[in-house]
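hey can u run this one w/ S-adenosylmethionine bound, need the structure tokens asap thx
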Amino acid sequence: MGTGGFHIPVLLNEVLYYLGLKKGDYVFDGTLGGAGHTVEIIKAIAPTGKVIGVDLNSQTVRTAAKRLGSLLRFAILINDNFANIKNILKELNIGKINGILLDLGLSSYLIEESGRGFSYLKNEKLDMRFGDSVGLTAYELLNSYSQGDLEDLFRRFGEELYSKGISKAIIDYRKKGKINTTGELVQIIEGAIPGKARYGKSGHPAKRVFQAVRIGVNRELDNLQEAIKDGFDVLSSGGRMAVISYHSLEDRIVKRSFLSYTGKCICPPDFPVCVCGRKKTGRIITKKAVRPGEKEVMENPRSKSAKLRVIEKI
Ligand SMILES: C[S@@+](CC[C@H](N)C(=O)[O-])C[C@H]1O[C@@H](n2cnc3c(N)ncnc32)[C@H](O)[C@@H]1O
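ok here u go:
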């Protein structure tokens, strides 16, 4: 997703190809970030179309406005949560839209410049909020959750094998004082993971706990679920929604949500007749998740885990 501070848009050509945009389209880009996708979407829909570009991080919206320069007249930029898609469009008096993009995860700005403690490779204060208005910071969460709640969080949102030991180590640490920085958190995690497992195939030992805390702080999975549901409602017939996810928990939600629009019966196999009554309202465009090629991963290592799925409303 980025080198040298600039965010490199992931799967850019694939997003444009699968969204299949035309002049005059209205597109909701729920994750404006560095406006990398937005710039190219604008080129596809201008001068008669518009992009509604949304980001939870206010500094990101200001920087994106600057980056768009003269293209800004084809965009409406809003500092909000993409889960509020219905309200955002209602306030703008926009009925149906032709395309939606959600490029989940972190921007280069958030990792490298925000100072909010997203990276286990930096020593910063624990915050991890995308925006300013969401509930608990990572500091508040890590210093207030019970051992059981921490363990549950690390297991559910980080799929962390050593959830139990790490949560116990956090509680022990808290007996002496608060956990203030990402550096302290990394040290606690490293101390709680057995030596051999610490630097194995599954990457940095703090990776999964950082992911879990970030998901918890930002209610990321709830937001994603709501945005897909409400986004699908406001898509016009023939309109498409593209979602790029970066880990299995997100991808599972995208895959299952999209499947629910295909009319596939979800009744237990022993039911004699269908009672779920599911109707086909969508067509999945990407039979399998689209992954970046070797060249993209080489040029932009942060794209490595990206998976793109696209659905069309019928
Ligand atoms: C991977 S970046 C997007 C990068 C962008 N597509 C580009 O190419 O420059 C994800 C962005 O989504 C924002 N974000 C995450 N969750 C959000 C939410 N629920 N609502 C709005 N923005 C969100 C983050 O602040 C971040 O700027």
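The radius of gyration is 21 Å. anyway lmk if its weird
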